[in-house]
Design a protein that fits this description.
six-stranded antiparallel β-sheet; Ribosomal Protein L22, Chain A; alpha+beta; 12 strands; 279 residues
Length: 279
């Protein structure tokens, strides 16, 4: 495991990720090579005045979902969760469709290595083609979702609403390194809820970028808990911005939420995308 500390300069090949508010009527500018962008999606937006967020069912967004996505939405017990899932999937389709210049409803997805979703493409396709270069990851918590997209580099994103976690100490003992466990134990109790979610989202972002869950290699990637002030903009994670091949950023996209984003750092002379997950 290699860890690089706070003084390391940011990679000039990976610009700082830019968060953007999502609405179906906004423009989606083209992504430059290696540029990462994160859309903030309000999953309860679009409700009619006075409409109950708990009871409102999915609406027009269902029309652009695949049959499988509609079936997945229908399996949620609560109307709120059916609607939020459908809105999130519709936003992902619209963002990717506009970046590719294709109809949102025509996009097809598949599971790559270790089950991470990617855009479907013909076998043996040109690795320079946007369908292969365009990497994405999605996370949602409560009424908010983040959709992260990068052209040419793998990435992972995680979002959490900050709330008390009664088993935080057990989770840290199970999925964090010994050094991280000692760091967490030294954090004042009043600050542990926020610190836990910062550490959790950092860990999840890196593992989602790899395409694996926390039960995999979580304790092999030391990400820490962070102590610097969070802002709505993504800033380099401190004290460790680079974790193995990943550059790590974090933000507070809304009050009460924390997010982390991991983007493959690549090589200084890299003119092609960083290694992608292959089928």
């Amino acid at each position: 495991m290699s860890l690089r500390g706070e003084r390391e300069p940011e990679s000039p090949e990976v610009p700082r990720p830019a968060p953007r508010e999502w609405s179906p009527d906004i423009d989606v500018p083209a992504l430059a090579l290696h540029e990462a962008r994160v859309w903030i999606v309000d999953l309860d937006a679009g409700l009619a005045p006075g409409e109950d967020a708990e009871a409102a069912e999915p609406g027009a967004e269902l029309a652009i979902l695949s049959a499988d996505e509609r079936a997945r939405a229908a399996r949620f017990v609560r109307a709120r969760d059916r609607r939020r899932f459908a809105r999130c999937r519709a936003a992902l389709r619209e963002i990717l469709g506009r970046l590719l210049g294709e109809p949102a409803e025509a996009l097809r997805f598949r599971a790559a290595a270790q089950g991470k979703p990617e855009l479907d493409h013909p076998p043996g396709g040109d690795p320079r083609a946007d369908r292969l270069r365009l990497r994405f990851n999605v996370s949602h918590s409560s009424e908010l979702a983040l959709i992260a997209v990068c052209r040419g580099r793998e990435l992972g994103v995680d979002l959490e609403r900050v709330r008390p976690i009664l088993e935080a100490n057990r989770i840290v003992a199970s999925f964090f390194t010994a050094a991280e466990q000692a760091e967490f134990a030294a954090i004042p109790a009043a600050d542990q809820d926020l610190a836990f979610h910062r550490g959790w989202t950092r860990k999840e972002a890196v593992l989602k970028a790899f395409g694996m869950g926390l039960s995999g290699l979580s304790a092999q990637h030391q990400t820490g808990f962070g102590s610097t002030e969070l802002t709505p903009q993504f800033t380099p994670a401190r004290p460790v911005h680079r974790v193995d091949p990943w550059l790590l950023w974090e933000a507070a996209p809304r009050p009460g939420f924390v997010a982390a984003l991991a983007v493959h750092a690549g090589e200084a002379d890299d003119s092609l995308p960083a290694p992608l997950i292959k089928p």
